[in-house]
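A reminder from the course coordinator: this example appears on the midterm review sheet, so study it carefully.

Given structure:
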């Protein structure tokens, strides 16, 4: 943009629009997830349409700053500044803003966003199509909105109009574009509202299903744990109260284990923490041979049950002695039958965690759902295979960000840095401190929303194509009679065709045609009268123009050319003589003692003297190529092209002698007097100099010498040049001709 051509009012208006766009973009309209509707860029479209690309770029810089503030992503400057230039240049080439915006997002905007998202963001690939589609639809919305604002208030924007149409647009094209704007705004607005309601409803249903699954699975898990806790409590109470020898306890333990296969193993430890009985019995011999190696006195499930004298459900931990698998221990104290408050051992059962997989698979109606069970220390007890979380690992997660708008409870468990949720979840807190989560991938919801927007885009495309066809057909239906009328009235009377207007022709067009026919008849009645008046006025105007031309080129007193005409004609004469290698004579003639004539005979006598001299000049220098001009006061200028340089001075002397013999009669008192003239001349080839002033300097110097030498004489300078050709004079009256 040329600084010298900056329009300050346009610059101020562009900055004002940019500030408005910045403020509006600071508060985008949230739609779903991290997708927001940006309307502040509407002002960029307005600036591009009204002011052109460079002012639109200024507006875009301000508007993009608003998005930079809330998104903290510098790509907005590149994306929207290029769009501003694109729309501005498209406007200069008479491309409508809505069409230009659609082309921009398809050709540049969406590919550019894809490159940026792929290189500089950690967005999941499955989310990118939805983001790109939203960007394109958003661009169409604010392009249509900006065009509508200008269309509905043309008088307000007229004062800022900087870009003009290169040619007038067709009515059908304008009608088509107007329909396209209306359809785009109406369809997209309604589609966005319907999609918004649909997505909200789907989110509600999805959250409800997740909560129902969490409650169902949580209660099943809680029931499983409660049943086995009751089994341990009942078993410990029975052992405490039974009047049997401890040697019989092994059979009782085996029977209890057989009734509750949810335990992997079961054991009884004495007050020293040594295992005295175990099930299955295959493990008993191995454990009792080296009891000191398998003491459970240091285990929390023994300590909690034995010392606190209450049942206990442990966190998940790695087994020892019975295997290396993660286990959950449920323990209860065994009291002495004689002293009911004195524990003599602990009954413990290790839950089979694979049973939770059975509960997980039982949730077959929701194949996308996964379950996760963690203990009070957030250690993973069980996780579905899809979650890829190993038992005993620490469960860390991040709940959804405020920047990600959704009604669902969302979390990330694999990539905690990204703002894009990985899972939707619902939780069920259990009485023993565990928490069961039901999770479902977030991406299918994104896919569903993407399909909704894709359907919207497809409907919009079909609607725009249908609208353009209908609008163009309607425009042609309206303009065709007008074109026929225009063609008919533009033809001559003898060749004019009859206009056929059918019954479907709008009454306004038919009325226009009737009025035009009547007006045509009235015009014809005045045509002859006007033609006659025009002919008379033309003749008078030509005479006046000729008089004006004479006044502008000739001296009013003498009828000779004036100084301005002579100077103007010299250039053409000089170029002609330079090309043809011919000579030019420049002559300055000044009347001697002319002031005395004015003083003696008055101004009338002086004027008569000038007229007589002019007449004599015409008689002596009568070629068509000779220029005779009154140069000022009593001074005359002669431009004599194509002359014989050897004959010019003689011809000037002949004129000087004839002038001195001429008798002049004073018209006021009939007195007579004579006048003489001093003459200075320069004769040179046409290439001597292009400027008349350079010729006049030498001629004027010769005139001054003639005055100083006694007046009434001719002094001529002949500038020698190899290009000057001296030729013999022709045998005619014009002896100064070549």
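Designed residues:
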């Amino acid at each position: 943009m040329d600084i010298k051509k900056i329009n300050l009012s346009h610059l101020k208006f562009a900055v004002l629009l940019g500030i408005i766009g910045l403020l509006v973009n600071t508060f985008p309209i949230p739609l779903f997830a991290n997708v927001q509707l940006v309307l502040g860029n509407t002002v960029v479209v307005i600036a591009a349409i009204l002011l052109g690309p460079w002012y639109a770029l200024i507006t875009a810089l301000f508007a993009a700053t608003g998005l930079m503030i809330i998104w903290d992503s510098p790509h907005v400057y590149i994306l929207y500044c290029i769009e501003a230039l694109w729309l501005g240049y498209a406007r200069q080439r008479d491309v409508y803003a809505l069409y230009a915006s659609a082309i921009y997002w398809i050709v540049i905007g969406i590919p550019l966003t894809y490159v940026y998202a792929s290189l500089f963001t950690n967005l999941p690939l499955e989310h990118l199509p939805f983001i790109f589609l939203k960007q394109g639809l958003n661009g169409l919305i604010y392009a249509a909105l900006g065009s509508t604002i200008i269309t509905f208030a043309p008088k307000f924007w007229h004062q800022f109009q900087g870009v003009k149409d290169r040619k007038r647009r067709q009515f059908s094209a304008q009608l088509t574009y107007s329909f396209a704007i209306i359809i785009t705004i109406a369809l997209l607005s309604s589609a966005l509202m319907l999609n918004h309601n649909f997505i909200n409803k789907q989110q509600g249903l999805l959250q409800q299903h997740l909560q129902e699954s969490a409650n169902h699975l949580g209660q099943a898990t809680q029931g499983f744990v409660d049943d086995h806790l009751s089994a341990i409590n009942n078993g410990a109470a029975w052992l405490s109260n039974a009047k049997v020898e401890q040697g019989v306890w092994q059979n009782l333990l085996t029977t209890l284990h057989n009734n509750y296969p949810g335990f992997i193993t079961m054991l009884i430890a004495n007050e020293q923490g040594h295992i005295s009985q175990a099930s299955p019995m295959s493990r008993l011999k191995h454990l009792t041979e080296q009891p000191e190696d398998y003491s459970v006195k240091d285990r929390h499930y023994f300590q909690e049950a034995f010392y606190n004298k209450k049942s206990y459900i442990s966190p998940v931990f790695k087994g020892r002695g019975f295997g290396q698998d993660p286990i959950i221990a449920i323990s209860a104290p065994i009291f002495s039958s004689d002293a009911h408050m004195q524990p003599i051992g602990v009954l413990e059962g290790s839950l089979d965690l694979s049973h939770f997989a059975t509960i997980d698979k039982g949730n077959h109606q929701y194949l996308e759902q996964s379950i996760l069970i963690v203990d009070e220390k957030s250690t993973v007890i069980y996780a579905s295979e899809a979650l890829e979380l190993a038992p005993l690992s620490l469960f860390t997660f991040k709940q959804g960000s405020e920047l990600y708008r959704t009604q669902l409870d969302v979390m990330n468990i694999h990539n905690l840095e990204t703002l894009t949720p990985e899972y939707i979840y619902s939780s069920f807190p259990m009485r023993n401190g565990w928490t069961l989560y039901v999770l479902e991938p977030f991406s299918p919801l994104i896919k569903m929303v993407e399909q909704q927007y894709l359907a919207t885009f497809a409907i919009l495309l079909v609607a725009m194509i249908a609208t353009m066809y209908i609008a163009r057909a309607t425009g042609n239906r309206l303009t065709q009679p007008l074109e026929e009328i225009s063609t008919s009235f533009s033809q001559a009377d003898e060749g004019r065709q009859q206009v056929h207007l059918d019954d479907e022709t709008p009454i306004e067009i038919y009325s226009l045609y009737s009025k035009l026919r009547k007006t045509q008849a009235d015009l014809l009645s005045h045509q002859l009268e006007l033609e006659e008046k025009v002919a008379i006025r033309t003749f008078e105007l030509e005479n006046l123009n000729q008089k004006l031309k004479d006044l502008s080129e000739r001296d009013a007193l003498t009828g000779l050319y004036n100084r301005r005409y002579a100077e103007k004609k010299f250039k053409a004469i000089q170029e002609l003589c330079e090309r043809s290698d011919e000579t030019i004579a420049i002559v300055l003639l000044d009347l001697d003692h002319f002031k005395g004539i004015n003083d003696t005979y008055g101004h009338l006598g002086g004027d008569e003297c000038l007229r007589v001299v002019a007449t004599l000049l015409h008689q002596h220098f009568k070629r068509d190529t000779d220029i005779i001009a009154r140069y000022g006061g009593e001074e005359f200028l002669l431009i004599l092209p194509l002359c014989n340089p050897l004959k010019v001075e003689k011809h000037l002397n002949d004129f000087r002698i004839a002038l001195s013999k001429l008798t002049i009669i004073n018209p006021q008192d009939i007195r007579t007097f004579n006048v003489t003239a001093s003459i200075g001349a320069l004769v040179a080839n046409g290439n001597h100099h292009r400027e008349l002033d350079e010729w006049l300097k030498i001629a004027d110097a010769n005139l001054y010498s003639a005055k100083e030498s006694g007046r009434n004489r001719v002094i001529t300078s002949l500038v020698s040049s190899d290009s000057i050709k001296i030729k013999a004079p022709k045998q005619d009256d014009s002896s100064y001709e070549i």
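The chain has a mean pLDDT of 82. The chain is about 55% helix and 15% strand.
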